[in-house]
Each structure stands twice: as structure tokens, then as C-alpha cells.
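This section describes the prediction task in plain terms. A model, or a person checking by hand, is given the sequence of a single protein chain and must write out its three-dimensional structure as a string of C-alpha cells. No templates, partner chains or ligands are provided. The sample shown here is typical of the held-out split.
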Amino acid sequence: MFTFLNPLIKIDFSLSRMIQNFQNIFNALTFIDLVLLATFAVLLLSRLLYLFLFTGRVLFRKKVDSGNAKAKPLSLIVTVRNEEENLKNNLPKILSLEDIDFEIVAVDDYSQDNSYLILGLLKERYNRLKISVLNQETRYSMKLAQNIALKAAANDWVLSFPVTISEVSNTWLSIFSKCINDNKTVVVAYSNIEQSKGFFNRLYRIENYLQYQKSIGYIFNSIPFVYSEDNVAFQKKKYFEMGGFAQKITEQYVNLELIINAFIRKSSTTILLEKESIVRRSVSVKREDYIDLLKKCVRIENHLSFFKRVVLAFDELTKLLFIPVAIVAIVSHLVFWPIFVGLLGFQFISYLFIIKITQNRLNERKIFISCLLYDLIMPYLKLFYKWHFNRQSKKRDGRAKYKIIG
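The expected answer:
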């Protein structure tokens, strides 16, 4: 009569036996074992919080609804040095856009080729193009050229873009112009380089993508900053209110990012995730270009506020410790492997899902798997590189001060 209950009784006994075994194992744990498992639990919780509250926030971000918002004029600023071919190939496509009122302010940074001549020829065809020039070589010419461009800009909002830009949507500027209003100071959109052959092209694209993903995650959590000035629009008056580059004129590797990060706030920042707002650059990336991108990241983070640096440091520390602690915890407590596999599997699959959806939204292709491997390995290499770069920078700054005093 009760034979059908036998399997259930066996299962119940098996579960009871398993629970009893785990209880016995927990009772046998030493203080060091408990510390190790507690450390793993804290690191796992920290990484999950960062994953869902920072990286994953993009999943809940809808497209910006500009509706029937009135398009406002924009001033696009660009600095060029020996960019004859890019000016011929890329600038006419932007100058030919007709959906909004805009101007382009181009500053020739002491070019030794025919860049200035090409700009002059383009100006004859397009009235919206303004030209300025730096007539001599200067150490910080990029910042000086940008300062000239900002002073010459006629509109209240400016958008910085590189002359190497080769891929833009016909509605690119329209999307920006309909998002700007008196309540906003910054509009951030995605930019990267075009896919091409080469190991460093892939590394550069991955690093640039991860920097953008990290940046918008922090913006969503009221810890705003940007890693790139490209495809970022901002109120021109904010630049002058901050005193321009001022004491930051000697800072290498970074330019307008320093100024934008000084006044950017979450409440007054719009993030564009539409594919139509994306721009891509056609450049040949070498090892030096990739290294410069890493240097730029380090310098930008060094110039952030103390609170932002602390949050970033905690993020990096938990990421660095998580994998080694997880390995030690699993190896030393194999009996808990089902629990470890379940927790780590949940964390890993969630990250896969978030990365895939984000890359689809940004139309970023063919870096999915390599992006995951890169994000797993590079934090350890970056730790050494950041230490080395900061050490070299302090030595260089020290020599520079010694020369000035001497």
C-alpha cells in the first residue's frame, strides 16, 4: 500500500544525510578555513554588486526619447596635424550633413603637409567651416589648439570629434542636438575604432569598449567621469568657468577629459546608447597607440576626486583578489564544489549576458569572447603597468621641477 512512498523516503534520507554531512564538515572547519570562506563570500558579493549595479545598469537604460524636441545648434571642434588624406576622405561627409544647424571649427596644429590647403579648399565649398591655425611648434599644442577652437565656437554647445572619424549615421548630430537643453551640461555617446586585422587593433577596441562600459556604469551611480573626449558634447561656458586647461596645460596623454570630469554630474548628463549616435575612427593601431590608451586611462583616474579614486581602487582590488581567492577556496574545500560551481557559474553567466547585450546595443562585433578573456587577465598586467607608469611619471615630474628650479 505504501510502496510508492519508498523513493520519497530514500530522497528524504539522502537529503538529511547530505545536510548532516555538511553540518559535520562546517563543525570541523578551523578559524583559517572560516576566514577564507568568509573572504570568498565578501568578494563574490562585491563583484555581484558591481556587476549588477554598475556594469549591468545599461540593461535597464532605455533609448533617450527626444520626441519633438527642438534641435539646437552645435559647434563641432577638431584639431588636425598632417591629416591631409583624412581631411579629404572624412570631413566632407560631416560637412554635408543637413539635418541640423551646425558649424565645424578646425584648427591646424602646425601641419607640415597640405592639411591647411585642404581646409581652405573645403571652406570655399562649405560656409559652415571655420579655420584657425597654430603657426609654430609648441609642446602642448593640442590643448592650445582646442582652446582656440573653443574660443572661436559660435554656439553654446560644442562636440569634440577626431578627423579620423569615418563612420557616422545621417542622424548622428540630430540625436545630439535634440538631447541638449539648459538642464544638461554633458551628452556622452560611444566611439571606437573600426575593426581591421591586427592584434593591437583588437586589444585597442576591447580596452576602449571596456573603458566606456565602466564609465557609463559609474555615471549611472552618481560617480561620473569619462575616459574619452571623442563624441562627447558639453556646454562651452563650463570650459571657461573651469578656467580652461590652466594648471593642467602640462598634463600629457589627456586633454578635454580633464575639464569635462571637473564639472560632469549624473543629474545633468545624458548617455546615448543608440546605434545612430556611435562614431568610429579609421586608424592603423600599433603597440604604441595601445600603450598610450592605457597611459591615458591611468592619468585620467589619477586626476579624479579622492572619493572616485577610492571606489575605483576598491573595484580593482576585489577584481584582482576574486579569482585567486576562489581558486584557493575551491582547492582547499573540494567538498563544497557544488556550491562553488553554482555561485561562480551564476556570476559568470550573468556577466556573459550583460556583455553580450551591451555589445549588441553598441553594435560592437567580434570581440565577445576575447573581451571576456581580456577582462579576466588584464587587471593583473595593468596593476604592474600602472605602478611602473606612475613611478616613471614621478621621476619625470621630479626632473622637470629640478630643471625649473635650477
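For orientation: The chain has 14 helices and ten strands.
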